[in-house]
TrEMBL record:
Designated name of the protein: Hemerythrin
Lineage of producing organism: Bacteria, Pseudomonadati, Pseudomonadota, Gammaproteobacteria, Pseudomonadales
Signal sequence, start to end: none
Organism: Thiopseudomonas alkaliphila
Residue ranges of domain Hemerythrin-like in the record: 5-120
Annotated Pfam families: Hemerythrin
Amino acid sequence: MNSFTALRESHDIQRELCAKVTNTQGESSERDSLFQQLVRELKAHARAEERFFYLPLMEYDQGVDLSRHAIAEHHEMDELIEQLQATEYSSPTWLVYAKQLSDLVVHHLQEEEHRFFQMAGKLLSAEEKVQLVKGYNQDYQNGLQEF
């Protein structure tokens, strides 16, 4: 498995969870469960991705701006998650924030899959990709257990 396959698998999970979360209603165990799964997935993925893809790519001049932009989007997601956690599930604004988070996540994933993957494919050697995916997978799995 190369690095892009590992990232795409997590991306697919994120898309699915975003769609499910934004289709929930009110104060429900379903909303709570799906939201907690989404938060865990986003946090584990972002941490592993920042450590094992963005930081190594920042060693290259061409990778700095795109990596910094992606990290900034992760920060925006964290802020929306905090807003959601501070809002009652039954509040109409909860769904508004959830849709904002979903839109940001989908935008971020599309940007990564089209711009980030192409650039990383050019900058990183085949050996680097294999090493980075090993680190990513381990950190991602650990993150799923922690968050």
